[in-house]
Amino acid sequence: MTEVDRMVLRPNHEGEMCPVCGDRVSGYHYGLLTCESCKGFFKRTVQNKKQYQCSADSNCHVDRTCRKRCPSCRFQKCLTMGMKMEAVRADRMRGGRNKFGSFYKRDRAHRMQRNAMRVTTIIPVSTGTQSQPPTFYTPAEHQVSSSTTDQNVQIQYYDQTKVKTEFIKTEYDAHLQSPTLSSSTNQQITVSDFIMRPGYLVDHQESIAALLNSTNEDHLLRFPTSYPLPEIKQEPFDYTEHHFIHHPLLDYSNYSSTANYAQMMPMTTISTAPSLVTSTSSTSSGRIIEASSTSPILPLCPAPTEKTVDHFYNSSIAEMCKTLPDDTLIPRILSQTVKATKNDAHAFAVQVADENLKEIVTWAKQDQMFSKLNLDDQMNLLQTSWATVHIIDITNAMVLGTLHQQYKVGNGEEVSVGFIALLGNQNFVSSWNEIVMSLRNMGFNNFDYCAFRYLALFDEGMELYPAVSAARLRVLQAWGEVRSYTAFLEIFNQIRRLAYDSMQYLWGLRTVCPAIWELLNPATSLVLEMLKTTADIRSAGNTVVTQVTSIQLPTPQTTYAPVVYMTS
DNA sequence: CCTCAAGGCCAT
DNA sequence: ATGGCCTTGAGG
Q1: A509, A517 in Cβ contact below 8 A?
Q2: What CATH number does the domain containing A34 carry?
Q3: Which of A29, A102, A457, A540 is most deeply packed, by most CB within 10 A?
Q4: Measured in angstroms, what separates residue A8's CA from nucleotide C11's C1'?
Q5: Residue A185 covered by a domain
Q6: Quick check: is A64 in a domain?
Q7: A46 lies in which domain range?
Q8: For residue A17, what are the CA distances in angstroms to A313, A342, A464, A532?
Q9: Global pTM?
Q10: Which residues fall inside 7 Å of strand C, measured at CB?
């Protein structure tokens, strides 16, 4: 083998950009493909326990040319992008391999799969050639790409210099980064329990209250330990290896002898870092806009001052992302449910919502702040937010391009994804399509998805609860660290409005179209149970719920077009 | 053996 | 303090 051959076969990071500064990637460093300089910077910072403080708004732009200006923001970005302090060795032992090695290998395969999946929806950067409307992958294409094995991990990655950079969290990342999420509660449950939570087709006998009452462990036990993936083949990542056994990761933190850093690692949930929410939060978005959008001058941090390093780890959207459902969930629900649904488009949409609602409840329960609320308040929050979260989930899947454009139900009707997302509320499908297009063009990413979801759960209308407004502030703070989010908030509010419209529409079917209503299995549907409870509470004069659901809406239409097309 | 992510070195 | 290049060494 010649030297040239060796060079060719060597893992090729050519064209890969460092997610921190955009420089050329030299390999995996501390859990992430980064450049040599960010590797060194991260190592020095952690080894020497350096403490920086940004003299601006902790929102400095970091790129190759200005990465030296603000070490605080640079280090924050390192962490946000996924570099792991545990990978810096406390004992400074050189050489060898650590337990991340096998993860890196899998990550290569994973990245290839993700890239292959996303390549079809990638929007060329402005410096590229003409922009083309995004296309969608088909399950067949995906199967080919997902048959990736460790043998072909050396194949060159998709050239990311030609694509919009986007930080993608994976289940793998969640495993790698955080052994546990909550620190010490009876309901303690690990991140991977959520990320890897298998299955979604449970029986319909349980009510939302029952779901809320059950412990997470109960819930897990009732799920099968593996789940069918009809259209999306799983990659050779051994889920079971890590799913219920968390020792390897826990062991690693001991192995790497970084107990001091392990203590600094965030055990972050919404409720754990209220102290971070300072008076600056409310104005942060405005200043971010000023700093990074309208002003050509980047904020400088001329004299970083020292401050406790813990500052960095209290809050980050990346931490919150770990609880997001995996990207295959919504496609799975849709393709499985469409088979199970007999012949009505509305019934299909409601059943999809039913399946996702169970996931949403489980997700909400894992949140410390949510789980601290009493059951009634939890119910109130869920009643207000489930439809918004549901639409956000489907919107995200649509932005990712993991869904078909239409799904064919039993009677041959083609049902658009918008129709499904909006619970059959055809009136607003074109608005929703526009939202999807906008988000795609804006570079909607996992961070935004995460923020959307939490902002939906902790609905603005529920800010009567102090816990809710605290949670919202915290989300906005964490989101603001990585985004100028004003434009996204606008779209979020549109989605929220669509959700209320859709809930009203669906509830309206009960009187306007009893025939359709009967097809929805009102006796067993969790979604319809939710709507009924909301309606009952409202008629009983509950102020909280009234406030958020009494938006006056157009009268639900009485008919809908059986053949629904995507509009663009 | 070889690989490649760790830590180390040192000119800048 | 930075960052390019060097050395190390467990795992394949």
Answers
A1: yes
A2: 3.30.50.10
A3: A457
A4: 22
A5: no
A6: yes
A7: 12-88
A8: 25, 48, 45, 51
A9: 0.48
A10: A 23, 35-38, 40-41, 44-45, 48, 67-68, 71, 93-97, 101-102
Give which of A302, A323, A523, A566 is closest to A431, Cα–Cα: A566
The reply to whether A342 Cβ lies less than 7 angstroms from strand B is no
Q: Is the CB of A104 under 7 A from strand B?
A: yes
User: Closest nucleotide (CA of A87 to C1')?
Assistant: B6
Instruction: Convert the pLDDT of each residue in A432-487 to its tens digit.
Output: 999 999 998 888 888 899 999 999 999 998 988 888 988 998 899 888 877 888 88
**Is residue A497 situated within a structural domain?**
yes
| One-character DSSP codes across A409-425 | -TTS-EEEHHHHHTTT-
In a domain, A131, yes or no: no
Beta-strand runs (E) in A93-195: none
A297-311, A343-357, A399-413 — which is least confidently predicted? A297-311
3-state secondary structure A373-393: CCHHHHHHHHHHHHHHHHHHH
Distance CA A315 to C1' C12 in A: 38
Question: For strand B, is any atom closer than 7 Å to the CB of A68?
Answer: no
Q: Which of residues 120-159 of A touch strand B (CB under 7 A)?
A: 154
Q: Nearest CA to the C1' of C3 belongs to which residue?
A: A37
How many domains, chain A?
Answer: 2
Residue A1 (CA) to nucleotide B1 (C1'), in angstroms, measures: 13
Render pLDDT for A306-323 as a digit per residue (tens, 0 to 9).
Answer: 333 333 334 478 888 888
The SS3 assignment for A58 reads: coil
Spanning CA of A91 to C1' of C8, the rounded length in angstroms is 14
